[in-house]
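From: lab user (bench 3)
To: helpdesk
Subject: output format question, protein + zinc ion

Hello, I'm new to running complex predictions and I'm not sure whether the block I got back is the full result or only part of it. Here's what I submitted:
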Amino acid sequence: MIPPTRDSLGTLLAHLREAGYRITTPRRLVLEILLDNPHGHCHYSLEMVAQELAARGIDLDVTTVYRILQWLKDAGVIAQTDLGEGHDVYSLAGLAPHHHLVCLHCHAIVEVEDTLFDPLRATLLERFHFQPRIEHFAVFGLCEVCAKQAPD
Ligand SMILES: [Zn+2]
Ligand SMILES: [Zn+2]
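Helpdesk reply: Thanks, we reran it on our side. This is the complete output you should expect:
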């Protein structure tokens, strides 16, 4: 099981309203699904969210679901990441922050802790006065097994 989000649906909705966002019924339903985490999975593709809505008898077309996910991303509620699976995945930013190492060869995905990126954050701030938003980051490369097998 993944750790629960820090914010309940009620708290999140209150934060969003405070920030001046309008909470429509479709927006609330999509957020509800991401928070419910019905498959015990922290990554959701657009299709998975759309399927879950359909399974609950909610009829929203994929374009609408996509726009809601983009809105949640802009509001900082979810992060969007390309894990090399051919589609982007969305995950709640309130979950324990983590990143992934993605093998380009066998497509194995390993989770790594957020603190690994602290030195990079510090360097970017010091040298470039840049505050990076490194959230749910995917680093592509070769895993140990594939690196050993690679002819080069
Ligand atoms: Zn992840
Ligand atoms: Zn590999």
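A quick orientation on your result: Residues 1-95 form a domain with the Arc Repressor Mutant, subunit A fold (CATH 1.10.10.10). Let us know if anything else is unclear.
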